[in-house]
């Protein structure tokens, strides 16, 4: 893609439970064909928008020409409210996607998330018309309900470490076959749940899976 300066903005946006802390990453003087929200891992276990996996997912999407919004769920960092067991967090994500849609009204919409955030992103895609692509990193299928993926026809890219002991690959392999098409599962050999020393392979896998898609959509 053409070279453009990166604009990073720290924002306070309005969410259903009050202000939400957010970081917007865009390229200057570039009409982004795609926007995405990236959802962070579990708030009760240290998950924030600054999580290294969520950060790498956002940066990789930006490299592909996507305008990206990361945000803190309610009760995290400077975001108002308190943890709501995934119910309110889904509405937080919906509000952030709506904000991105208003900012880039002609852009396609994607949703992405890591671990707990992938559960939120999955339910967002299943309930929000028009989301064209879903990126799930280490989805916690053993502890959260991903049954909506059986009927959700949004295109799914699932990235999973083979050495993940928190969201084990064998549990994902039980669920993934019954998820609706289109879908693609990409394994990161040797990667743990937090992709320690494996962030570069994660990013490379994302680029390989998505570069053709974004290139086609920019035409």
Verbal overview:
α1 runs parallel beside α5 and α2 packs across α3 (116-127). α1 (52-63) links the parallel β3 and β4 (66-71). An 8-stranded mixed beta sheet has the order 1-2-4-3-5-6-7-8, sandwiched between helices. The protein is 31% helix and 27% strand. The chain has a single domain, classed as Alpha/Beta hydrolase fold, catalytic domain (Rossmann fold). The chain has helices at 52-63, 87-103, 116-127, 169-175, 199-218, and strands at 6-15, 18-27, 34-39, 66-71, 108-114, 131-137, 155-161, 183-188. By secondary structure, it is an alpha/beta fold.
Q: Which segments are poorly predicted (pLDDT under 50) over 5 or more consecutive residues?
A: none
Rg from C-alpha positions?
16 Å
pLDDT average, as an integer? 94
Tally of structural domains? 1
Report helical residue fraction: 25-40%
What is the structural class?
A: alpha/beta
Strand tally is 8
Kindly report the spatial arrangement of strands forming the biggest sheet: 1-2-4-3-5-6-7-8
| The CATH fourth-level homologous superfamily | Alpha/Beta hydrolase fold, catalytic domain
User: What is the CATH architecture assignment?
Assistant: 3-Layer(aba) Sandwich
Question: In CATH, what is the class?
Answer: Alpha Beta
What is the count of helical runs?
Answer: 5
Distance from N terminus to C terminus (CA atoms, Å) equals 11 Å
Look up the CATH topology: Rossmann fold
Question: What pattern of helices and strands is seen along the backbone?
Answer: EEEHEHEHEEHEH
Choose one word for the global shape.
globular
Q: Quote the beta fraction.
A: 25-35%
Largest sheet, in brief, is: 8 strands, mixed
